[in-house]
Design a protein that fits this description.
Number of domains: 2
Order of helices and strands: EEHEEEHEHEEEHHEHHEHHEHEHHEHEH
Shape: elongated
CATH topology of the largest domain: TIM Barrel
Strand content: 15-25%
Bound molecules: ligand C2E, magnesium ion
Radius of gyration: 24 Å
Mean pLDDT: 88
Strand order of the largest sheet: 7-8-10-11-12-13-14-15
Helix content: 40-55%
CATH class of the largest domain: Alpha Beta
Structural class: alpha/beta
Number of strands: 15
């Protein structure tokens, strides 16, 4: 920085740089890009090589604001945009960000309220064994029931929850509520299937996650083997060392682990081998085109073969037709999930489904052993 510039630490890992007397916006972009590169360089402390991935947002006087508050607010919005673009980059403020920022703020406020007022709920989607009848597991899927907007799907609020830190309390609620529900089903005599829960990247970074899960198991009288955690491929590959560490702890407790949406991110196969996982969930985009698209069919076949070679089971996601089911069964896929068998169901409907689809052996008097299961729908 020049002598006339100001560098300040706002707190935590947030810093502000004030550049005086710039000739053009372009100069600001060039300078901040230099800052990003310098901060992003590797450095050594006590023999450890460290590096950081800074995100920088830029606002320019008088273009983006006439006073310090506005300039700071807009630089902040630009910085969030930089983070959302994958960190380690620089973004200039643009007015559209203001709209995005205030919409994010609105959703954030309403989401916090939804959590307090218990407007979040879980639906459960069955996972079936290769016979297409026996219930092997259920996946807990969160929904937000808004008094005005109705049912809001997770894709619209989980990313915001992640960005704002609300994923902490929301994730904790999902663990608590799904465990409570599984215990209630067990008490009602419904057993033989596990509960799968989706974990976000942020949750995986929480140090006390293994303890949180162990305590919830104890509280509800469940064993670790009843629980499976799903993490997406990109989450698993993002921060390998700390992820592996947390996953190992969970695995040592007996928790089952699955990679979600497999095939959509980029995986290092050598890294995959290091992860203490038991299952891969084949992304539904490949399943969707499995009959029409020979590439997708090849990807499904290769993924299943690869997984089996690594000693993993494969869950096919998004199975919608019996042709897809037959195709995947030919390929020796282990488990199946999708609208063909059932949409995600509320707890009562899932209990009825579970009663009709008991795992083979647990109910010798099973009434119906022919054909495909009923396609129960909650709409
Ligand atoms: P996911 O974990 O891959 O979940 C599967 C999604 O596919 C669900 O969408 C499910 O309703 C949908 N699906 C299932 N079968 C079919 C099918 O046959 N065809 C089609 N077209 N879709 C099918 P949903 O419930 O909207 O969830 C979307 C994503 O939101 C989930 O993807 C998951 O990544 C995330 N999510 C859901 N609940 C939670 C949660 O409690 N915590 C976190 N962190 N993420 C969650
Ligand atoms: Mg999932
Ligand atoms: Mg998935």
């Amino acid at each position: 920085m020049r002598d006339s510039d100001v560098v300040a630490r706002l707190g935590g890992d947030e810093f502000v740089i004030v550049l005086n007397r710039l000739d053009a916006a372009q100069t600001a972009a060039t300078l901040t890009e230099k800052v990003r590169q310098r901060i992003g360089e590797r450095y050594e402390i006590d023999g450890h090589i460290l590096h950081t991935t800074p995100s920088l947002g830029v606002s320019i006087f008088p273009l983006d604001g006439a006073d310090a508050d506005t300039l700071m607010k807009n630089a902040d919005a630009a910085m969030y945009h930089a983070k959302a673009e994958g960190r380690d980059n620089v973004q200039l403020f643009n007015p559209r960000l203001n709209e995005a920022a205030s919409s994010r703020l609105r959703i954030q406020t309403r989401l916090r309220e939804a959590l307090e007022k218990r407007r979040l709920l879980l639906h459960y989607q069955p996972q079936l064994a290769a016979d297409g009848r026996s219930l092997a597991g259920v996946e807990a899927l969160i929904r937000w029931l808004d008094p005005d907007e109705g049912m809001i799907p997770p894709d619209r609020f989980i990313p915001i929850a992640e960005e704002t830190g609300l994923i902490g309390p929301i994730g904790a609620w999902v663990i608590e509520e799904s465990f409570r529900q599984l215990a209630q089903w067990r008490a009602a005599g419904l057993s033989g299937f596990r509960m799968s829960i989706n974990l976000s990247a942020q949750q995986l970074r929480l140090r006390d996650l293994p303890r949180q899960i162990a305590e919830a198991c104890t509280r509800h009288g469940l064993s670790a083997g009843d629980i499976e955690l799903e993490i997406t491929e990109s989450t698993a590959m993002r921060d390998p060392e700390s992820t592996i560490d947390t996953l190992r702890q969970l695995r040592e407790m007996g928790i089952e682990l699955a990679i979600d949406d497999f095939g959509t991110g980029y995986s290092s196969l050598s890294y995959l081998k290091l992860l203490p996982i038991g299952r891969l969930k084949l992304d539904r985009s490949f399943v969707h085109e499995i009959e029409a698209n020979t590439n997708d069919a090849a990807i499904c076949a290769a993924t299943i073969a690869l997984a089996h070679n690594l000693g993993l089971e494969v869950v096919a996601e998004g199975v919608e037709t019996s042709a897809q089911f037959d195709f995947l069964r030919e390929l020796d896929c282990d488990l199946f999930q999708g609208y063909l068998f059932s949409r995600p169901l509320d707890a009562d409907a899932l209990a009825r489904f579970a009663a009709r689809h008991r795992a083979t052996g647990t109910d010798p008097a099973r009434e119906d052993t022919t054909g495909l299961p009923l396609n129960e729908q909650t709409g």
